[in-house]
UniProtKB/TrEMBL annotation:
Pfam families: tRNA-synt_1e
Domain tRNA synthetases class I catalytic per the UniProt entry, residue ranges: 1-388
Name the UniProt record assigns to this protein: Cysteine--tRNA ligase, cytoplasmic
Root EC class: ligase
Keyword terms, alphabetized: Aminoacyl-tRNA synthetase, ATP-binding, Ligase, Metal-binding, Nucleotide-binding, Protein biosynthesis, Zinc
Species annotation: Trichechus manatus latirostris
Superkingdom per UniProt: Eukaryota
The encoding gene: CARS1
UniProt-listed GO biological process terms: cysteinyl-tRNA aminoacylation
Catalytic activity: tRNA(Cys) + L-cysteine + ATP = L-cysteinyl-tRNA(Cys) + AMP + diphosphate
Region (Disordered): 588-654
Length: 684
């Protein structure tokens, strides 16, 4: 999902430039299929699968696990990053826990099937641990270049599937490093020829000092303060290229590899400096430079790629072309975080695109990104997604209402109605919102502000429709249709509507190949009108069973088919096609609401009965007996039953006596009412 943030964001930017501002956009995407991390992982996968195929005996597996845990434990102790250390400790603990059942099974000499089952569980739990250990022992023996191409090919295919599922447009051209090695070699040679690169021990490095001292160039344009940041520079060089030996090959610690001499266990290609492979930064420069030439308008990427990757790309490309403007604009997308932490494969705190799509649709994910600035950090959470779901529902209800209005029969001249003050005001608001949307898109493609303007426009339309409904007047069809089509147009530009829908979100799902709404709506409309006629006759003839059947059709049958009927007093029933899951959720919420109202009603009735019973019980008591039971408060009473002395025998004060007298008179009145009701026969 961290990758999805970048690719959906750039897809939105590309669509806005192309479809809103009408620029002719040529979109080039580079695929890095030669890289230190890819090489290591491909090697590890190969060695682990080879190990698994050998089906090691349980005793051998346990011995290897113990051997692999020793360097891994040392690695855990050396790790200073608290998040990474926690992840490594978790991995270590998982392996140790998975090893215990196998050890016990071996000691107890359990059947072979049980031992094999425990071994398989341990193998799966220890995959990363064993892969790293096997690579450290046998990695240098892997020499077949095809082993290194298998992994990136698999993940590139998965990437394209995910992009299609997210409705991300494919690039106009896609380049892979493995297919551009000759171009990379030529690119490096030109940089060396121009005096900005030098060969050293079979590798070629970029001379950052020479480049920075040139009057025509400047180094680290994007993040000048990061120059000399050895941690960032080492990350840029790659896991397999950071060692004292490699550092000694450089003229300056800030120099970076253009071409790397291949070691045993790494893919290699022939070149003037010996067998080697491309450096990371040079790959993008050579591929993009080959297709886009000496200058490009926009270069995209994640915020964390600014230094050293993009700064090094700039330097080596400008050294190749001998210019100072290889990229006119860099656009860097913000990170996607989970609970405030950056998604990271190395920390294993990431959500895959496929997992995200099991919970939410591609449109909902896209709306989430649209509701935030593409350049800011976005926290992926249930609250964030809920906001997108509510926005989608809000917009969809508006589209459904407008569709229902447009389906209502009207003659040709009736399509154009006289505008009153309300229509003129709504139309002015419409044009004001359009101007605000344009201004927001001109302001660094501020989609967050655009969606808020769209929400405000729909709110104004909803108020207008509600006022018309209250006055039993039909809203202006043409005006609301114009608003709905404009909003649909914007959502199409943003890629939130993928089908050829003329108005609102399409029904039937992406790629259905059928306009479900246009196909089924005439039949549903006929059913609705027939139902209205039946209900009218049932009310006139007083046949409640038919009315109940009509309600069952509306509340139980049609929602299962993704159809909502909305009955309005004095107005035609509105038919809406809505996602079945949404309707079933609405129905369940309605039933829960009705059950809650029924429960509250019963609770109120119970309390009322209890109150009336208590009141009746109190009314039955004659005033002369009301205080006699309170012997803990009073010790003497007069002839009428009024207390005269407290529990200690002291005579009551005038104030106390007066208060008791009032209570006595009130009870006398209540008791008299009781006697009257008994006499009338209304109370037993």
């Amino acid at each position: 999902m961290g990758h999805a943030r970048s690719y959906i964001s750039f897809d939105i930017l590309r669509r806005v430039l192309k479809d809103y501002f009408k620029y002719d956009v040529f979109y080039c995407m580079n695929i890095t299929d030669i890289d230190d991390k890819i090489i290591r992982r491909a090697r590890q996968n190969h060695l682990f699968e080879r190990y698994r195929e050998k089906q090691p005996q349980a005793a051998q597996l346990l011995e290897d696990i113990r051997a692999a845990l020793q360097p891994f434990s040392a690695k855990v102790k050396e790790t200073t990053d608290p998040n990474k250390r926690q992840m490594l400790e978790r991995t270590q603990r998982t392996v140790e826990l998975a090893a215990e059942p196998l050890e016990k099974a071996v000691q107890a000499k359990l059947p072979a099937e049980e031992i094999s089952s425990c071994a398989e569980v341990l193998l799966e739990a220890a995959k990363d641990l064993l892969s790293d250990w096997l690579d450290s022992r046998f990695g240098s023996e892997v020499t077949d270049n095809s082993i290194f191409s298998k992994l990136p090919k698999f993940w590139e295919e998965e990437f394209h599937k995910d992009m299609a599922a997210l409705n991300v447009l494919p690039p106009d051209v896609l380049t892979r490093v493995s297919e551009y090695v000759p171009e990379v070699v030529n690119f490096v040679q030109r940089i060396v020829d121009n005096g900005y690169g030098y060969a050293s021990n079979g590798s070629v490095y970029f001379d950052t000092v020479k480049f920075a001292s040139s009057e025509k160039h400047s180094y680290a344009k994007l993040v000048p303060e990061a120059v000399g940041d050895q941690k960032a520079l080492q990350e840029g060089e790659g896991d397999l290229s950071v060692s004292a030996e490699h550092l000694s090959e450089k003229r300056s610690p800030s120099d970076f590899a253009l071409w790397k001499a291949s070691k045993p266990g790494e893919p290699s290609w022939p070149c003037p400096w010996g067998k080697g492979r491309p450096g990371w930064h040079i790959e993008c420069s050579a591929m993009a430079g080959t297709l886009l030439g000496a200058s490009m308008d926009i270069h995209g990427g994640g915020f964390d790629l600014r230094f050293p990757h993009h700064d090094n790309e700039l330097a080596q490309s400008e050294a190749y072309f001998e210019n100072d403007c290889w990229v006119r604009y860099f656009l860097h997308t913000g990170h996607l975080t989970i609970a405030g932490c950056k998604m990271s494969k190395s920390l294993k705190n990431f959500i895959t695109i496929q997992d995200a799509l099991k919970k939410h649709s591609a449109r909902q994910l896209r709306l989430t990104f649209l509701m935030h600035s593409w350049k800011d950090t976005l926290d992926y959470s249930s609250n964030t997604m809920e906001s997108a779901l509510q926005y989608e529902k809000f917009m969809n209800e508006f589209f459904l209402n407008v569709k229902g209005l447009l389906r209502a029969p009207v003659d040709v001249t009736g399509q154009f109605e006289k505008w009153e003050e309300e229509e003129a005001e709504l139309n002015k608001n419409f044009y004001d919102r359009k101007a605000a949307v344009h201004e927001a898109l001109c302001d660094n493609v501020d989609t967050r502000a655009v969606l808020e303007e769209m929400r405000a426009l729909v709110s104004q339309c909803n108020l207008y429709m509600a006022a018309r409904k209250a006055a039993r007047r039909r809203p202006n069809r043409a005006l609301l249709e114009s608003v709905a089509r404009y909003l649909t147009h914007l959502l199409k530009i943003f890629g939130a509507i993928e089908e050829d829908s003329t108005l609102g979100f399409p029904v039937g799902g992406h790629g259905a190949g059928l306009d479900v709404e246009a196909t089924v709506m005439p039949y549903l409309q006929a059913l609705s009108e027939f139902r209205e006629g039946v209900r009218r006759i049932a009310r006139e003839k007083k046949v409640p069973e038919v009315l109940q059947l009509s309600d069952t059709l509306r509340d139980d049958v049609l929602p299962e088919l993704g159809v909502r009927l909305e009955d309005h007093e004095g107005l035609p029933t509105v038919v809406k096609l809505v996602d079945r899951a949404t309707l079933l959720t609405e129905r369940e919420e309605k039933r829960r609401g009705e059950e809650e109202r029924r429960r509250k009603k019963e609770e109120a009735a119970r309390k009322k009965r209890e109150h009336e019973a208590a009141k009746l019980a109190k009314m039955r008591i004659p005033p002369s007996k009301m205080f006699l039971s309170e012997s803990d408060k009073y010790s003497k009473f007069d002839d009428t039953g009024l207390p005269t002395h407290d529990a200690e025998g002291k005579e009551l004060s005038k104030g106390q006596a007066k208060k008791l007298k009032k209570l006595f008179e009130a009870q006398e009145k209540l008791h008299q009412e009781y006697l009257q009701t008994v006499q009338n026969g209304s109370v037993q």
